[in-house]
Amino acid sequence: MPKANLRPIPGGAPFQDFECSVCKARISRKCDNLADGKSVAALKAAIFEEWDAHLYNAHRHQWNFLRAKKAKRKVTE
Question: Which alpha helices (DSSP H) does the chain contain, by range?
């Protein structure tokens, strides 16, 4: 089973247009002012939140694996 990765879309807006490497689902967020540090942080958080939701809906096996890995890491810290 191939592992889903979040990849930038060639020719898309820098750091704003991505796709799933397995199913080619697009994830796009627009941000007007990328020079502002708070805007970048909010954009990054929104993209990863949408990516997490995509993994949950489309690639549940990988989502479960990542949740277990994060929980295991949290216990060892």
Answer: 37-58, 60-76
